[in-house]
Fold each of these.
Amino acid sequence: MYVNEVLLSPNNKNTTSNKLFVIKIGGNVIDNPENLKKFLKDFAAIDGHKILIHGGGKIATEISESMGLVPNLVDGRRITDEDTIKVVTMVYAGLINKNIVAQLQSYGCNAIGLTGADGNFIKAKKRPVKTIDYGYVGDLHEGSIAPDNLTNLINANFTPVFCAITHDGQGQLLNTNADTIASALAVALSKMYETTLIYCFEKKGVLKDISNEGSLIEEINPVVYETLKQANIIHSGMLPKLDNAFAAIANGVKEVIIGKSDDLETLKHNIPFGTRLINNL
Amino acid sequence: MYVNEVLLSPNNKNTTSNKLFVIKIGGNVIDNPENLKKFLKDFAAIDGHKILIHGGGKIATEISESMGLVPNLVDGRRITDEDTIKVVTMVYAGLINKNIVAQLQSYGCNAIGLTGADGNFIKAKKRPVKTIDYGYVGDLHEGSIAPDNLTNLINANFTPVFCAITHDGQGQLLNTNADTIASALAVALSKMYETTLIYCFEKKGVLKDISNEGSLIEEINPVVYETLKQANIIHSGMLPKLDNAFAAIANGVKEVIIGKSDDLETLKHNIPFGTRLINNL
């Protein structure tokens, strides 16, 4: 069914132009200018359609502190209060996003820096107040992504660069998890493109032994995933990431890669990197 | 010749869809949330293609001060040093731009927030150091604007919202005068669209007597302009604004309006407002 959808899509004439990479980098890449520079060069060198989603890094905290703001914590959880949403809008959508865009342009990539408010690309709902009021935090929902608007932009040969800010459609910007945005974008766009979702972080990929970079698991399918979970080889923080990844695959994404930002360059030589999650059942 | 260009443009099928309004608001509108809200509602209500360019307002100074930064002045001139370009990128491209976009989206306008780095839309050259080093200030030059990229975006029914930041194409963001950006965009796009350039500020328009809002000059052509200059009715700060406006008209812009942001709503009823500058020689 997925193949049919791709072939039937009127905008896409062949498989080559129909590939889309949705790539997310975390704060640890942002925090290191040299890592970021190498990553952006490698990202710019990827042929064809691509989208970048970036996290925040430590800069938001540093700016907050320099403004004399104190983190608002309730039961140990960080709250996005009125000052915080201002700071993250400044730092994520302004400072980080536009510097990434300017760098990508210098490497010949036609980047365009966005929040979810721009083009109404990503709408979210302010998280309902239960025991904790998280403040201006937005959760995605069915229909959050406007794939037609985004396809117009991508097909006009722009490379969207999203920070992790969405809006509620009523004028309010919202702080949203970057991993979730990446997977929602990949799923929504998999109707039009053959989509690969890549999470770049500080490790080589999913490791059997977290202290040994040589213990990389190169490929995981749902059956292998179950076995690894039961053997307690994959546990704690990695579980939601992988659950999320397999959910994306179940919803149309062709494959998910979890790997190191430094290794992205292998992609242009068609050499696999990191851990490849596939659904070959 | 201009009419021929419009008729021959392949993307534009009729005169109605071929109109473009390029509208600039200054810091005084940004600084007043109620004025800004009314302006954005009126802007959203304008039919057809439109571009917004916004200035900075007092917020950048306030954020700077809250971060403990001291304005860097040389010979009384404000310098865009390394800290300042960071702050203006945060405030103009992040806080102000994205809040404007979110508000416009809530009024049904498909806004997309941009700097000149995005889509490589506006390139500038760092101002050469002569007696004063202005720091990260960018001046526009011939070929600064990429009209094709921008036309793609506009024809895909997005409404560009530009802050006054450009880039040098080498990865450096630059602080650039918003009036100049507005006029350069209007001129570059007048090859594809029937373009009206509107400067919104705090006065009703060009006044014979600056203290009397009733002394509005409704229309100025180059001959009238010469007369008004010689009679010293137009002088000092208004001269560069008007010189700039007539230069835009000489380079393809159909008309320039200088008026009050509050009065923009009359535009949707096709009622003129402010001072209309035309070239009817």
Note: The interface with chain A takes residues 63, 66-68, 86, 89-95, 97-99, 101-103, 105-106, 110-115, 117-120, 149, 152-153, 156-158, 165, 167, 169-173 of chain B (CB under 8 Å).
Amino acid sequence: MTDTLPGTGLLGLSSLRHQVGEALTGFLDSKDQAAPGAELRYLTGTLRGLLAGGKRLRALLCVTGWQAAGATGDVTAAIHAAASLELFQVFALVHDDVMDDSDVRRGQPSAHRALALAYTADGGPHARAQAHGLGAAVLLGDLALVWSDELLHTAALAPGRLAQVQPLVAAMRSEIMYGQLLDLRTTGRLSDDVEGALRVVRYKTAKYTVERPLHIGAALAGATQPVLDACSAFGIPLGEAFQLRDDLLGVFGDPAETGKSVLDDLREGKSTVLMALAVQRASPAELDTLRALVGRSDLSEAQAAQVRSILHSTGARQTVEEMITTRHDAALAALDRAPFPAAAVVRLRQIARAATARQT
Amino acid sequence: MTDTLPGTGLLGLSSLRHQVGEALTGFLDSKDQAAPGAELRYLTGTLRGLLAGGKRLRALLCVTGWQAAGATGDVTAAIHAAASLELFQVFALVHDDVMDDSDVRRGQPSAHRALALAYTADGGPHARAQAHGLGAAVLLGDLALVWSDELLHTAALAPGRLAQVQPLVAAMRSEIMYGQLLDLRTTGRLSDDVEGALRVVRYKTAKYTVERPLHIGAALAGATQPVLDACSAFGIPLGEAFQLRDDLLGVFGDPAETGKSVLDDLREGKSTVLMALAVQRASPAELDTLRALVGRSDLSEAQAAQVRSILHSTGARQTVEEMITTRHDAALAALDRAPFPAAAVVRLRQIARAATARQT
């Protein structure tokens, strides 16, 4: 069953997702077969589970970037490069969860929790389970990172293309790590620095999640600079809107829909734009409440409700909604000016809608 | 001041170390200059400190592999590739210390400890210092890993050489991660499985630390298969001897010399060949003592002395010394048969001696 994008002749999103999934499965199968021992399945099994849950946003953007640069025909190499971005994303998620000590990811136990459970189920001593889970998750992320590289290198790209793609991949990696660094340095410190929070959004999400996957796909098709620039003009505002939506969902979302705890961001004291706006505008009494509650690792549901009420009463929530709309509109306007084939524009509109919707 | 290896005309080890250090410094300088903000210096500063302490064994082997394959002339590209292995090694050390929760590395606080201290010194809340240090160290390791890749890709290799080197780099990375996985799964479980412990040694050290750096250097010079095979015949036994020596130093060494705590391996319950031999040969009373003490995170110096005494009385220590000698001799014998230029053989003998000496 192959679906197509109406009116374009392009493969539909679900067909693309399926092909990316097949590429990932094929790669992991080859790793399991080549492994010196069965122990590796302990990590590849966990990887398969994590890869199954994603929406494959980066992969879809990568393939669409390839189409935006005018490529048609055999999509195989683009699918492999797209799959390598999904492996990279699993690396980023697994290490992010370790850094944030998050329990849940995509509705399942996060990797370090799952690996701790697997260790005791396998007869490992309970006293070491947590340390083992953490160590195994760090290792799992490392493996996903180096394998994402390998998947890209073995993607059978046209001659010379790898050299064109490589600097963009290097930039993407450095950018997300810079964003993570900013995030780490601000987490747990209540701040009114909206600009600072937006910088984190730009590096950690806008560039990493949207702009660079488009760039990498476009470079696979030998994109010209105007095409790359148009990818940025669309990708940066869309990526910011996407992260701002994610921040709202992280506090006001429905865990059954998002697969994420609605307490984690508040317990960690994530320095989001939402929180910085609330701090800017809070009354002295409200500020005292935020100071007392945000960042408490034992924050209760009732205390979280108090924080949510301040995010609402200060208008911070409403302002973030407006920021999302502004950015979503800017992304669509950039698309109107972009030198992309019409079919790629249709697809990017579809992705923009899904990425900034009020529910995931 | 340029030293040369006597009788060969090759640069001496200290000159090579110096050139590798210059390449690393130049690379990190360029990263600091290109960074969007000063925050990055928080991580690059820590990286510089970690890179300063090493013996650069992998880098020296890489350059010597290049010479073993018959290369002469401009060593610049080989030095850059060698430097990329040192960055990779810092990645491996930093994540290894996170996984093992080690406090000390190369005589200094380990990365996660140092970063926790830097965080509180910078005004970060004490309650978050440990979590921050751990997260920042995971990130630092990630950055070292992707930068090692970048340093290799920008090493100005002869055309076609990168494609020849890439599969060997991929193999090296997968192998050390496989070794780490075996290590993680066995740590904390007292075992008499000498063969299993030797498998960890083979993947985590022999291939990663010796064989693959030689291979990568040799491939940079377009090595033939007989040269690569000779690198393995020398590298695997030497790497095993090196790790077995390291295991002895980790329990019986002088921390002032090794820069490592002499309690960590015992507290973690590392599954070394040394310990597996002792478990095989222990009397029931000795086995009870080992079970009670090995893996205790609060192991005292007096308790460690009890364990050392059993490692001695069972003959485990002596057997490991003999295993080191056997492997060291096998490595030297392989060198006699190797199709390497005489100067490379002189250098490899020198490295073999240093790597398996009773003191570091």
Note: The longest helix of chain A spans residues 126-153.
Amino acid sequence: MQSTRSEVKALTFDVFGTVVDWYNSIVVEGEKFGETHGIDIDWEQFALKWRAGYGPAMNKVRQGALPWQNIDALHRLILDALLEAFNITGLTEADKDHLNRVWHRLKPWPDAVSGLTRLRRRYIVATLSNGNVALLTNMAKFAGLPWDCILSAELTGHYKPDPEVYETAAALLGLSPNEVMMVAAHVGDLRAAQAVGFQTALVPRPLEYGPGRVQEVTAHPSDLVASDFNELADLLGVG
Amino acid sequence: MQSTRSEVKALTFDVFGTVVDWYNSIVVEGEKFGETHGIDIDWEQFALKWRAGYGPAMNKVRQGALPWQNIDALHRLILDALLEAFNITGLTEADKDHLNRVWHRLKPWPDAVSGLTRLRRRYIVATLSNGNVALLTNMAKFAGLPWDCILSAELTGHYKPDPEVYETAAALLGLSPNEVMMVAAHVGDLRAAQAVGFQTALVPRPLEYGPGRVQEVTAHPSDLVASDFNELADLLGVG
């Protein structure tokens, strides 16, 4: 069955990297945290390693090597290992919890709020992230992201790219998969969504891993491709 | 453990009757639907009977007599029986589906949008309704309700007043129950929330069942009591 763009009723967004700039947010907040706590480390490497631990940790959950736990818990597991690796000592539990919640305080890419605000005029706009509901809700409040609905892998007991995440999201929205368009900077996410029948839009974020580490992505012929959320609104004909 | 109001970080709202005026919304839309479809019935009785079927249908699910199904499905079960009882014939499937979705198009009480907008400045404001996610999301868009997060019984596989609904909501918000305040017009909802440790606010909606059927409710001593959402914001000290 051929899907057409006019059928789309909801846009579901990957969040880390697609909507918010985790790299720069963590580096900036880490450097401030380091100043106030007397920690002199390379926060760029710290941010990259924290993010690098994320996929493997989720895969352990996906494959059953770890019991289900949400991203706050996985971020904390990785953080505790990183604090050791970077020889950071003397932090209180409150310090560690605050640092772990930097993922609730990530800043949006410059086009994200204005683009989502436009897209929301015509479509339901929802998160579809591996981030947990509390993280995504707090982030939306912090960053002013105008979601209609917070959808998360946490609601499904699976992590992306497991098909259950996408299937459950469409079911919760009361839509068939071809009425939903997944928007992401990562082709793996888009291909997994497409495999269950979602339409797809690729919004590359070449600076996701910081300057000097430009990410290259290759669109699938069926992907709508936009350089940011405002161009996505243009391409979808939203004023 | 004594909970204090200063601990509250999120307000969770019952929706049907507490935030939106289902009675008047259904009567008004029903009468218009009747005119365009040549159906001359008492839409006030129709609305009351539709709502009256809701509790028993949910109880069948809660007690295992019906398999899990969401409120859209339960509303449709009740609607199909009502169409027979009122001798309404000749509707297409699209007509019936449209009529069933009147629950997605309920209008807020006059204070709801302004009160929620104020409360949202300090608190996370979320639905906590037996309505399904799609219904609540569509309603929010239709009515301009500024939720931070759509939480629903549907996410838990239980219906209120089962404790799992409240417990899961607090967990998804990353909060302990005493950090959440349930806001409802119905004391049964508040007592069930309180039983798992939520704080509670009673906002009576005496006209929920229409004029001439004034609902009387008796607050528990621990309930914060407000006549509408703006008074609730006043009592909580939100400017």
Note: The domain at 5-21+107-235 of chain B is CATH 3.40.50.1000 (Rossmann fold).
